[in-house]
């Protein structure tokens, strides 16, 4: 699925906050069953892109569609098709993992029974002993697993991730990437915005470089090595230098 | 329903919320119990009146029977009046703790008796007693603040705000949470109140009216919390702003408005009328008796054919100069009453813009413990006193002997119609 029929579709999207142009002709299309990583520094427009897709911000120009729906016109319709994981997945600390998933699924209008929830928690890699523990003592990785389990159960066609690996230790990052690969096999279109080049290279099918609110470069995974990390790093560096200039 | 169960579980796990709701319930129950105890005490005092009255009359009856003197009967016998609490009085004691609900009067000058207890107690008059109205007007807003100040900001600060907003039906989530908190606060106030009202025999229409007032007042404060919440400040800033709003709307503005109304509508204290009446009565001892009687008969010609005064003391002269004393301050009484009514009207008008004042006025009106109820009691006392005077004058001015059995013919306050 490409172009206008892709689950995530942005064409020539512009948005400014006052005099500051945050998105400047951004075009991006993400097909079902693929993972796209948007890399960029602070102020590049990564989080704004997510806000536009979620209907939190309204594009001033261009075309935005999630599964063919304009988020500005029907934000609820879009949110029914999106699972969103913020940078810091903060769930309810005084509820257990199962209760959190139960609650979030009910809020999404897709309640599930305990068996389905525990199955999804297992699939997300959360150990059984943690299912009925309150989230107060959970690490970021464990909380992410609960949120991913909810996304799996919701069976949404689009998953948006905001800096998913920041603050994760290497093992938790590896776990998360494995989980994301699993999500991709279900046909979910995944957009992750990140600073983490290595993690993006590990899991993404495509990496876009965002700078000044527009895609300045795009690299597609190719062959068994997927990406040329040196070349990626060089491109990322160019972006950094441009921003510094 | 399932979602409400989830929200309820979430609330039940928040210790502060549970504590706040439990505390509000306890305060409501305590206020209702205190109000019911006070009303029961007042009812018991009123119920004890007939026995005490019989005892009082019994103490003087034999002596008066021996003298057959109506003047002594009028002078030495007290006659009780009372203002029985309405069924809802327990919820809003209003003026019942700053003005007397039992007054024993004699057939002498009324103004010195009726204003005798008219002293102003600012401590009691401002916030009132600890009753249901106090809990609702002064304390309930603080619990609204406790439960609503961080409704959205708390989620933002916990990092869940964006995630929740990204879920379908996010708007319904906030409405559901608002509705649930409102329902719990309402239940903490309304359930104990309804039980107490049923026990006290309050009519269902009145109960419903009070419950509507409770709901409207809670909604007002929730709207204030929602307005401040829209500014997207931190929870601490929200709480501080709401607490300041509470202070201004519930304490400072009503107090300043009260001061302004009192300054704009100056009235003398009732005690000053009592003093003026007493001075008029005292001066009468130095005025020639014929002049006193001439003045009295000019106003009350129905007694003018009474036998002329002899050289000895006669109670009809004594009661006549008492009545002259009352009439000498009648203008001041009218002015005082008009001033108080204007102040009351100004206070009620303030209730249209200040919900705390409006709710208090509504509750005391429903409970018949407001200023209007106090005036109605005063009117009944005046009507009763007129009957009392007419009763004793019929003996004094016609020189009829007064026997023990005549006490039974004296008018009774219970026979004076309401309103």
From TrEMBL, chain A:
Gene3D superfamilies: P-loop containing nucleotide triphosphate hydrolases. PROSITE patterns: ABC_TRANSPORTER_1, ABC_TRANSPORTER_2. It comes from the Bacteria. The lineage of its organism: Bacteria, Pseudomonadati, Pseudomonadota, Alphaproteobacteria, Sphingomonadales. GO terms for molecular function: ATP binding. It holds the Pfam family ABC_tran. Residues 8-237 form the ABC transporter domain. InterPro entries: AAA+_ATPase (IPR003593), ABC_transporter-like_ATP-bd (IPR003439), ABC_transporter-like_CS (IPR017871), ABC_Transporter_VariousFunc (IPR051782), P-loop_NTPase (IPR027417). Keywords: ATP-binding, Nucleotide-binding, Transport. This is ABC transporter ATP-binding protein. It comes from Sphingomonas corticis.
Automatic annotation (TrEMBL), chain B:
Keywords: Membrane, Transmembrane, Transmembrane helix. It comes from the Bacteria. The keyword tRNA-binding does not apply. The keyword ATP-binding does not apply. The chain crosses the membrane at residues 132-151, 182-199, 205-228, 240-261. This is DUF3526 domain-containing protein. The lineage of its organism: Bacteria, Pseudomonadati, Pseudomonadota, Alphaproteobacteria, Sphingomonadales.
């Amino acid at each position: 699925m490409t172009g206008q029929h892709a689950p995530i579709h942005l064409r020539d999207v512009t948005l400014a906050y006052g005099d500051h142009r945050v998105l400047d002709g951004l075009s991006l299309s993400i097909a079902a069953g693929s993972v796209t990583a948007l890399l960029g520094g602070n102020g590049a427009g990564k989080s704004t892109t997510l806000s536009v897709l979620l209907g939190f911000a309204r594009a001033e120009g261009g075309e935005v569609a999630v599964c063919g729906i304009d988020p500005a016109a029907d934000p609820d319709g879009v949110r029914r098709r999106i699972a969103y994981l913020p940078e810091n997945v903060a769930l309810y600390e005084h509820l257990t993992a199962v209760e959190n998933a139960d609650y979030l699924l009910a809020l999404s209008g897709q309640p599930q029974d305990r068996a389905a929830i525990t199955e999804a928690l297992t699939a997300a890699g959360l150990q059984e002993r943690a299912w009925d523990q309150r989230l107060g003592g959970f690490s970021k990785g464990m909380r992410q697993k609960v949120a991913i389990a909810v996304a799996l159960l919701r069976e949404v066609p689009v998953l948006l991730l905001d800096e998913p690996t920041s603050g994760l230790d290497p093992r938790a990052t590896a776990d998360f990437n494995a989980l994301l690969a699993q999500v991709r096999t279900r046909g979910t279109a995944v957009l992750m915005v990140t600073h983490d080049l290595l993690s993006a290279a590990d899991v993404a099918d495509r990496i876009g470089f965002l700078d000044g609110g527009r895609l300045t470069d795009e690299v597609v995974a190719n062959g068994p090595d997927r990406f040329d990390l040196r070349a990626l790093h060089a491109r990322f560096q160019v972006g950094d230098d441009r921003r510094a200039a | 329903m399932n979602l409400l169960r989830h929200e309820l579980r979430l609330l039940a796990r928040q210790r502060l919320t549970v504590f706040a709701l439990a505390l509000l319930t306890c305060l409501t129950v305590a206020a209702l119990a205190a109000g019911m105890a006070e009303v029961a005490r007042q009812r018991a005092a009123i119920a004890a009146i007939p026995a005490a009255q019989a005892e009082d009359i019994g103490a003087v009856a034999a002596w008066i029977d021996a003298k057959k003197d109506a003047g002594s009967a009028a002078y030495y016998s007290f006659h009780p009046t009372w203002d029985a609490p309405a069924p809802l009085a327990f919820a809003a004691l209003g003026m019942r703790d700053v003005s007397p609900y039992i007054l024993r009067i004699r057939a002498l000058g009324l103004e010195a008796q009726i204003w005798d207890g008219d002293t102003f107690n600012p401590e009691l008059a401002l916030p009132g007693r600890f009753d249901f109205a106090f809990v609702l007007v002064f304390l309930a807003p603080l619990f609204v603040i406790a439960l609503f100040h961080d409704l959205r900001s708390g989620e933002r600060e916990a990092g869940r705000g964006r995630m929740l907003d990204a879920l379908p039906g996010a708007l319904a989530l906030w409405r559901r949470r608002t509705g649930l908190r409102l329902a719990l606060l309402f239940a903490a106030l309304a359930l104990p109140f309804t039980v107490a009202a049923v026990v006290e025999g309050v009519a269902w229409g009145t109960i419903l009216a009070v419950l509507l007032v409770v709901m409207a007042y809670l909604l007002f404060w929730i709207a204030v919390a929602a307005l401040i919440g829209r500014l997207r400040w931190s929870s601490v800033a929200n709480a501080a702003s709401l607490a300041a709003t509470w202070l201004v709307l519930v304490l400072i503005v009503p107090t300043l408005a009260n001061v302004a109304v009192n300054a704009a509508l100056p009235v003398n204290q009732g005690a000053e009328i009592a003093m003026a009446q007493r001075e008029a009565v005292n001066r009468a001892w130095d005025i020639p008796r014929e002049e006193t009687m001439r003045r009295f008969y000019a106003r009350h010609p129905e007694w003018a054919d009474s036998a002329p005064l002899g050289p000895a003391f006669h109670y009809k002269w004594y009661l006549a100069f008492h009545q002259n004393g009352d009439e000498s301050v009648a203008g001041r009484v009218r002015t005082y009453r008009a001033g108080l009514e204007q102040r009351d009207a100004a206070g009620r008008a303030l209730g249209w813009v200040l919900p705390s004042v409006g709710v208090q006025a509504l509750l005391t009106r429903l409970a018949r413990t407001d200023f209007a109820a106090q005036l109605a009691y005063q009117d009944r006392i005046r009507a009763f006193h007129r009957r009392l005077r007419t009763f004793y004058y019929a003996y004094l001015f016609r020189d009829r002997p007064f026997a023990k059995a005549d006490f039974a013919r004296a008018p009774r306050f219970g026979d004076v119609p309401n309103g």
